[in-house]
Design a protein that fits this description.
alpha/beta; ten-stranded mixed beta sheet; 10 strands
C-alpha cells in the first residue's frame, strides 16, 4: 500500500486537494495522510487587528483570534476525516507544527506522492498559482508531486509530455509505478519539436517499445513550434478533464524544454492537475 500525503492549510482548507487526494488514494488502494501544517508563525489575523481602544496590542483580542483560528483548524481536520471515512479510505491525520516549508519537505522524504494546491501560501496573502510557497516546495521536494487546481473535476484523461530527454521519461515511469489505476484512463503522448525538425517522435522505436508495456493504448501527437505556446493551446481545447505529466522542475536538472517556466505556465494557465517527478 503506497503512502500519499495531502498538504492542507487548516485556516484556508482546500477542498480540491481533499477531493483529488481521495480519488487517487481510493483508486490506487493507497494510505492517505492529511498533513495539516499548523505553522506557529502563521495566523489568520494581522498585527493591526490586535490594536485595542487604548492603543497597543490587546491581550483579549489576541486570545479571541487565537481561539477562532484553533477552532477553524479543528473543523478543517474534522471535515477531512469525515470525507475519508465516507470514502472508505485508510487514512491518518498529522498536525505538523513546524515552519510550513520545513515541515512539508521533511514529510515528503517519507512519502510516495504529495498532493498540494497550486494556490497554497501559508500566509495571509493570496497569490497567483503556482505561489512562491509551492515553487519552493517543488524545487526541493523528495517525492513526486501532484499540483492541483482550485476546483476539483474527476480525472478522465492523461497527457504525457515527452521531449526525448531522460527527465520526461522518468516522470512517465514514476507516474506508471505510482498510480497504476489511473492508467485505465485514455492516454496521449504529446511532444513539441522545433520547426526545422521532422514530426517523428523523438527516439520513436525505443519510446513506443517502452510505452507498449506501460500504456499500451496510448495515442501520440507531435507538433512544431514553441512548447509553452503549443502545449497550452492544445490543452485549452481539451473537452475532458486531463491530468498532465511532466519532468524535472529543479534548476540545473532540466531537460531542453521541461524547465520551471513550463510547469509554471501549465499550473497557471490551464488549471488542471499536474504530476511532476524529478529525475
Amino acid at each position: 500500500m503506497k503512502k500519499i500525503i495531502a498538504a492542507f492549510d487548516g485556516l484556508k482548507f482546500s477542498k480540491s486537494t481533499r477531493d483529488y487526494a481521495i480519488q487517487i488514494a481510493r483508486e490506487n488502494n493507497a494510505h492517505l495522510v492529511g498533513v495539516f501544517l499548523d505553522d506557529p508563525y502563521y495566523q489568520s489575523y494581522k498585527v493591526y487587528d490586535l490594536i485595542g481602544d487604548e492603543g497597543g496590542v490587546s491581550p483579549e483580542k489576541q486570545k479571541s483570534f487565537l481561539a477562532a483560528d484553533a477552532k477553524t483548524r479543528d473543523e478543517a481536520v474534522a471535515g477531512f476525516e469525515l470525507a475519508c471515512k465516507r470514502a472508505g479510505l485508510a487514512y491518518t491525520v498529522r498536525r505538523n507544527k513546524e515552519i510550513a516549508t520545513q515541515g512539508l519537505l521533511q514529510e515528503s522524504i517519507y512519502a510516495d506522492l504529495l498532493v498540494i494546491s497550486g494556490y497554497e501560501t501559508f500566509t495571509n496573502r493570496s497569490e497567483q498559482a503556482p505561489t512562491g510557497f509551492v515553487r519552493d516546495i517543488l524545487s526541493a521536494v523528495q517525492c513526486p508531486v501532484l499540483v492541483v487546481p482550485a476546483h476539483y473535476k474527476p480525472l478522465s484523461k492523461l497527457i504525457l509530455l515527452f521531449d526525448g530527454e531522460p527527465s520526461s521519461v522518468h516522470a512517465i515511469k514514476m507516474f506508471s509505478y505510482m498510480l497504476p489505476a489511473l492508467k485505465e484512463h485514455p492516454a496521449k503522448v504529446l511532444s513539441v519539436k522545433p520547426m526545422s525538425q521532422s514530426l517523428h517522435l523523438p527516439d520513436n522505436k525505443l519510446m513506443k517499445e517502452f510505452m507498449k508495456r506501460h500504456f499500451p493504448k496510448a495515442a501520440y501527437k507531435v507538433m512544431k513550434g514553441i512548447p509553452e505556446t503549443e502545449i497550452v493551446n492544445f490543452l485549452k481545447q481539451e473537452k475532458e478533464s486531463p491530468l498532465v505529466v511532466l519532468g524535472a522542475y529543479r534548476r540545473g536538472m532540466v531537460s531542453r524544454w521541461f524547465r520551471p517556466s513550463m510547469a509554471d505556465v501549465l499550473i497557471r494557465e490551464l488549471k488542471v492537475p499536474v504530476f511532476i517527478a524529478h529525475n
